[in-house]
């Protein structure tokens, strides 16, 4: 058995050993910013750390198949711990750093972890709190000793000590590491990623070595990041399957050079220092980069503003030609080059995107306008579609960016749409099932296809368009359905709309919207149009402002199917506020709570009223309450 | 490991770091401190509390040489310091922070901390100007010390930010960082938590405890917030109108009737409260 797999590079530890042997000290595998300096680890260092850590784990009694829970920010130590767990025949289990002790307890119990590798005092404290409730947990290993100087627990030890133990063990049994690595094969479970199900407790999706090794090799080939030494900034949580693919496997299989930011708060700064060539931003991050640029431009000098807007209109024109599959043409190509030299180059440098070649995002929440904006700067955001269970299903290929779509299915994946519009997937690189939960695994399979739970369709060119989660679709009368989130994301792109709640209902004929104007930008609009106003409430009800919002809604309506268009709306008299539980702390609307709270207004949207008197209590930061009384106009979008 | 051994050693010896005997200070006819006696042992966190105008900050100003007391003596590690200039006292290893933050607001965090290393810099201005060989090596060494402090106080995200642009709570932390950068053997903190919100207070308390644990640094803290004092101080001294009216563990101090009276005025009110 061992012989058969020996020469085949079918596991990550084998890849590491191979890279360590061939690239050795000549190439840098990872960099981490520490004490203000980028510290380098060569492939030889990477291999050595993992070798010692593996043997340290063995010395601590880690048996094949046992789980190592890893709890920390993106740091080389995280990656070493995962590789060492796999090399020793174990399985890595990633946990998000913002988990509370109760969640850590669930992951530790559910995965039957025997060793926990934790980042620092904060994470160690969580583990200490729940330690006694996890019978199989033997050791807790930390890598950042700050604040842990006086912890006296015998089961707690530093990673440096474990590395030393491994080194000593190696001296006794020199060939052991190689034997252990040889024992691994492609079907081994490499890592368990917990997916936060919308219903019930999180489930542990098992990913095999083959998923990581072959899956990533093919992906890198399709998207052209298989050239070793491309710079990558690792900051999305490794507990998430995407970072398992890009960071952990991408680093080993595709040879990406991994860079670790100093702190989560310094990512923006560190990105600029590294200038990554391949990167992944979540939808929110792209949005915040975009609004940061817009805000900075507004504060800039008139000349710069003028230049920026001239260049951007050229950029957008070129972006539209690319999207419309018309060739860019010599004329526009030349103009874009000028715009790039005059503006985009400096702008991209500021954002750390000057060298960005392969750029990803995922999830349905990214507005097409954002994709168009970055395309104007010459950055193709590839909004891919996939999940922990399905792996990567579809990616827009280079030169085929369509802002609305997630591209064509990958060569290894087959997509089918069920009768009620659910996306079904069959893929060569799927997960190996949920850990200790075959019922849940079976429930997701229908005739050999994985049921994604996502609503979407394939367009005439075979591009996949993902609208929303099936369960988040809202009904309209006559059995029609629409996706509030889909519309809201698009409306929110307007600089004048800060938040919006889109509503419908079984017995309602059309879609309505509660709009939160953006005080800053609408205020600026009022100023330049000589509209006098006193308060947020007053501003929101000005006829010119209502007309402004109406026009924004009209624009979005044109991109929506007829039945999903917003027909009536109100401008809310106050902003949604997290202090009043209308928003979560991450600024997501608490839908049902808000719908209940503004029930009268929502009813007015459907009753044909023109105006509604509203009285609302407002809770201030210090807990006092006040009352706002006002007339709100109910507006139609024609 | 090394630090742990140090802690053990110092616990055994328990050296007196600071000894103040019969300290008296007046400005003209105004008596600010009257016959104040106190002692600070190595590794100890001593809180000085008292109502407004009790003379707490004046006491700190006497220790670090801003004020010249008319009576009494201040002995720092066996050496009388009450006749020395502030810069000499700083060189002896007494660092402090201020109630109203005294940083170079136009410089960034890194430069503020590097400035504190000045007392340890040996190369002259000329060598520094050419910046090679020894001067360069020295700069690197000091930068390392400063980077350790940045790491310790979690100041990485603001390393290159101008201090004047930082929020208040962060500036307070930078000030603590600057005091630490002097590599002191006694730390005087003047209201380190003043004007902070709860979260910032908790962070600051943790940093102070970490400093105390890691370096077994003796500290004298002037603070208003009794909850903070109860959490972090080993011992507290209460001043009222320049007189020391009580001394002991914080938990006993808060029950002391004289202290309650000084803080709340009349005895009846305090029993009601």
Distinctive features:
heterodimer, A: 638 residues, alpha/beta, Rossmann fold, Luciferase, domain 3, 4 domains, seven-stranded mixed beta sheet, five-stranded mixed beta sheet, 22 helices, 28 strands, globular, disordered N terminus, B: 273 residues, four-stranded antiparallel beta sheet, 12 helices, disordered C terminus
What is the strand and helix layout of this fold?
The complex is a heterodimer of chains A (638) and B (273).
Chain A: H1 2-6, H2 12-22, E1 28-34, E2 37-42, H3 43-59, E3 67-71, H4 76-87, E4 91-95, H5 101-111, E5 113-118, H6 121-130, E6 139-142, E7 156-158, H7 159-172, H8 176-183, E8 189-195, E9 203-208, H9 209-223, E10 231-233, H10 241-254, E11 257-260, H11 267-274, E12 278-280, H12 283-298, H13 302-323, H14 329-350, E13 358-362, H15 368-376, E14 381-387, E15 391-395, E16 408-409, E17 413-417, E18 422-427, H16 438-443, E19 445-446, E20 449-458, E21 464-469, E22 474-475, E23 481-482, H17 484-492, E24 497-503, E25 511-517, H18 519-528, H19 536-540, H20 543-557, E26 566-571, H21 591-597, H22 599-607, E27 611-619, E28 625-636
Parallel strand pairs in A: 1-11, 3-4, 3-5, 4-8, 5-6, 6-7, 10-11, 12-13, 13-14, 25-26
Antiparallel strand pairs in A: 1-2, 8-9, 14-15, 15-16, 17-18, 18-20, 19-20, 20-21, 22-23, 24-25, 26-28, 27-28
Chain B: H1 2-13, E1 16-27, E2 30-41, E3 45-49, H2 56-63, E4 71-76, E5 79-80, H3 86-92, E6 94-97, H4 109-116, H5 125-130, H6 134-152, H7 168-181, E7 186-190, H8 198-215, E8 219-222, H9 226-232, E9 235-240, E10 243-248, H10 250-253, H11 257-264, H12 267-272
Parallel strand pairs in B: 3-8, 3-9, 6-7, 7-8
Antiparallel strand pairs in B: 1-2, 1-4, 4-5, 9-10
Report what the structure shows.
The complex is a heterodimer of chains A (638) and B (273). Chain A has 638 residues and is of the alpha/beta class. Chain A has 4 domains: 206 residues, Rossmann fold (3-Layer(aba) Sandwich), CATH 3.40.50.980; 97 residues, no CATH class; 77 residues, Luciferase, domain 3 (Roll), CATH 2.30.38; 164 residues, ANL, C-terminal domain (GMP Synthetase, Chain A, domain 3), CATH 3.30.300.30. Chain A is built from 22 helices and 28 strands. The N and C termini of chain A lie far apart (71 Å). Chain B contains 12 helices and 10 strands. Chain B is globular, with a radius of gyration of 20 Å. Chain B folds into 2 domains: 182 residues, Rossmann fold, CATH 3.40.50.300; 80 residues, no CATH class. The longest helix of chain B has 19 residues. Chain B starts with a helix and ends with a helix. Chain B has 273 residues and is of the alpha/beta class. In chain B, strands 6-7-8-3-9-10 form a 6-stranded mixed β-sheet, sandwiched between helices. At the A-B interface, loops of A face helix 6 and helix 8 of B.
């Amino acid at each position: 058995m061992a012989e058969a797999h020996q020469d085949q590079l079918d596991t990550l530890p084998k890849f590491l050993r191979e890279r360590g042997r061939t690239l050795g000290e000549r190439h840098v595998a990872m960099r981490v910013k520490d004490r203000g300096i980028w510290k380098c680890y060569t492939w030889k260092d990477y291999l050595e750390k993992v070798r010692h850590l593996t043997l340290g784990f063995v010395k601590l009694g880690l048996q094949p198949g046992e789980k190592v829970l890893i709890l920390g920010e993106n740091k080389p130590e995280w990656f070493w711990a995962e590789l060492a767990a796999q090399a020793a025949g174990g399985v890595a289990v990633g946990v998000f750093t913002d988990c509370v002790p109760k969640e850590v307890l669930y992951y530790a119990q559910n995965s039957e972890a025997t060793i926990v590798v934790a980042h620092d005092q904060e994470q160690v404290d969580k583990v200490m709190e729940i330690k006694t409730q996890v019978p199989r947990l033997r050791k807790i290993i930390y890598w950042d000793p700050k604040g842990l100087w006086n912890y006296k627990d015998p089961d707690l030890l530093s990673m440096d000590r474990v590395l030393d133990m491994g080194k000593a063990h190696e001296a006794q049994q020199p060939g052991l590491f190689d034997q252990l690595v040889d024992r691994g094969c492609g079907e081994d479970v490499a890592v368990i990623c917990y997916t936060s199900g919308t219903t019930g407790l999180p489930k542990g999706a098992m990913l095999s070595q083959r998923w990581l090794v072959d899956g990533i090799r093919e992906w890198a080939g399709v998207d052209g990041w298989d050239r070793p030494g491309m710079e990558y900034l690792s900051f999305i949580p490794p507990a998430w399957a995407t970072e398992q693919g890009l960071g952990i496997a991408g680093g080993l299989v595709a040879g990406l050079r991994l860079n670790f930011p100093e702190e989560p708060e310094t990512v923006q700064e560190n990105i600029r220092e590294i200038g990554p060539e391949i990167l992944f931003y979540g939808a929110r991050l792209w949005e915040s980069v975009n609004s940061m640029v817009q805000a900075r431009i507004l504060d800039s000098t008139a000349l710069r503003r003028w230049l920026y807007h001239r260049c951007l209109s050229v950029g957008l024109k070129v972006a539209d030609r690319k999207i419309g599959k018309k060739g860019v043409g010599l004329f526009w190509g030349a103009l874009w080059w000028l715009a790039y030299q005059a503006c985009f180059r400096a702008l991209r440098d500021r954002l750390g995107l000057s060298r960005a070649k392969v750029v990803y995002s995922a999830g349905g929440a990214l507005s097409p306008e954002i994709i168009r904006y970055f395309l104007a700067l010459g950055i193709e955001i590839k909004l891919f579609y996939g999940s922990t269970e399905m792996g990567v299903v579809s990616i827009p290929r280079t030169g085929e960016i369509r802002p609305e779509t997630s591209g064509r299915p990958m060569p290894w994946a087959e997509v089918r749409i069920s009768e009620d519009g659910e996306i079904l997937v069959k893929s060569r690189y799927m997960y190996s099932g949920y850990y200790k939960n075959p019922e849940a695994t079976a429930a997701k399979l229908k005739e050999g296809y994985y049921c994604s739970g996502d609503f979407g369709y394939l367009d005439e060119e075979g591009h996949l368009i993902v609208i929303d989660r099936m369960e988040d679709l809202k009904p309209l009368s006559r059995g029609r359905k629409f996706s509030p989130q889909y519309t809201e994301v698009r409306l929110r792109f307007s600089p004048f709309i800060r938040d919006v709640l889109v509503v419908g209902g079984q017995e309602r004929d059309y879609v309505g919207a509660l709009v939160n104007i953006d005080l800053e930008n609408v205020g600026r609009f009022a100023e330049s149009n000589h509209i006098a106003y006193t308060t947020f409430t007053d501003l929101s009800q000005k006829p010119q402002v209502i007309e402004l919002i109406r026009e924004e809604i009209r624009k979005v309506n044109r991109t929506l199917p007829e039945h999903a268009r917003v027909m009536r709306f109100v401008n809310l008299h106050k902003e949604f506020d997290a202090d009043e539980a209308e928003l979560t702390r991450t600024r997501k609307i608490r839908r049902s709570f808000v719908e209940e709270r503004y029930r009268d207004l929502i009813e007015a949207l459907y009753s044909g009223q023109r105006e509604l008197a509203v009285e609302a209590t407002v809770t201030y930061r210090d807990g006092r309450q006040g009352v706002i009384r006002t007339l709100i106009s109910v507006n139609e979008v024609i | 490991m090394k630090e742990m051994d140090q802690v053990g050693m110092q616990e055994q010896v328990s050296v007196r770091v600071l000894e103040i005997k019969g300290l008296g200070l007046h400005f003209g006819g105004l008596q600010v401190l009257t016959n104040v006696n106190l002692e600070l042992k190595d590794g100890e966190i001593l809180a000085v509390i008292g109502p407004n105008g009790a003379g707490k900050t004046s006491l700190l100003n006497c220790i670090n040489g801003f004020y010249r007391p008319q009576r009494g003596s201040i002995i720092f590690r066996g050496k009388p310091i009450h006749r020395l200039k502030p810069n000499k006292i700083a060189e002896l290893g007494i660092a402090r922070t201020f109630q109203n933050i005294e940083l170079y607001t136009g410089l960034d965090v890194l430069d503020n901390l590097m400035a504190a290393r000045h007392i340890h810099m040996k190369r002259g201005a000329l060598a520094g100007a050419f910046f090679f060989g020894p001067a360069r090596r020295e700069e690197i060494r000091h930068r390392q010390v400063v980077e350790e402090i940045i790491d310790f106080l979690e100041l990485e995200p603001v390393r290159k930010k101008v201090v004047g642009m930082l929020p208040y709570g962060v500036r307070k932390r930078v000030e603590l960082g600057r005091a630490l950068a002097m590599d002191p053997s006694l730390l005087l903190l003047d209201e380190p938590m003043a004007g902070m919100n709860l979260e910032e207070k908790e962070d600051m308390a943790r940093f102070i405890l970490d400093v105390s644990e890691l370096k077994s640094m003796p500290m004298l803290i002037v603070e208003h917030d009794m909850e903070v004092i109860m959490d972090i101080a080993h011992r507290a001294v209460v001043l009222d109108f320049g007189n020391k009216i009580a001394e002991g563990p914080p938990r006993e101090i808060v029950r002391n009737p004289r202290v309650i009276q000084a803080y709340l005025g009349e005895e009846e009110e305090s029993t009601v409260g």
